[in-house]
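Session log. Operator J.P. requested a structure for one protein chain; no other inputs attached. Running the standard single-chain path with token output.
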Amino acid sequence: MLPRQPTNMNLREKLCRRVQGKVVVMGIGNPSRGDDAAGSCVAQQICSAPAVHIIDAQDVPENYLCQVADRQPDTVVLIDCVDLKSAPGSVALLEKDETMAYWPSTHRVPMGLIVNYLEGTTDARILLIGIQPQQTDFLQPISADVLSSVEVVARVLNEIFESRRISASVQGANPLTGEVPA
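Structure written below.
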């Protein structure tokens, strides 16, 4: 069982080790279905950063897959509402083999197919941040637990991207590629 609420340090540590190079963040979720909007809400709260492209795909992530591939990312971070069989608002960082178990979903294309497509068209590391919903009923607001987790996930991603930007500028690196001039 996962913790009820994510701890900033735990999620930050896990993501810091895995998020590298050019990054695409795709928030997934239907804004009309309560907690299902979680991924979309995270995408809307992420600040612009060098070498980071943010997509608010809402409930049609399949419409953005070519855009993701065209960016030639090193890391793709997908954020979606996932039934983790845990307390509402729980957060988990899932690897590819773990994404196959999460179907059906509120979007048309299963997450496993999205991950397989991205792996086949990019050389990127694909990560899924799953947020446990409380409810996904139509025309309902996001629950307090999920909203709290959305804010934590967005804050952690923003901190990671800001620290990468600062690190690149201190080292004199190109903020788009991370390369340090010789």
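Operator note: Helices lie at 8-18, 38-45, 65-70, 96-99, 111-121, 144-171.
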